[in-house]
Amino acid sequence: MKKLSVVLAMVLTVTAMAGCGGKSTESTNTDTSADTETSEGGDENEAASGEMRDVVVMVKNSTAPFWISTMDGAKQAGEDFGVNVIFKTPVDTAEGSGNEQQSQLCEEAIVSGADAVVIAPVDSEAIVPATKKINDAGIPVINLNTRISDAEQYVTFVGLENVNQGYDTAKVVLEKMEGEGTIFIIEGSTGAQTSIDRVTGFEKALAEYPNIEVVAQQSANYSRADAMNVVQNLLQSYPDVDAIICCNDEMAMGTAEAVDAAGKTGEILISGQDANDDAVGAVKEGKLFATSFGNPYMQGYTAVQAAVDVLDGKEVEDFYEVKTKVVTLENVDTFKDE
Question: What interhelical angle do 193-206 and 162-176 show, nearest 10?
Answer without folding.
Answer: 40
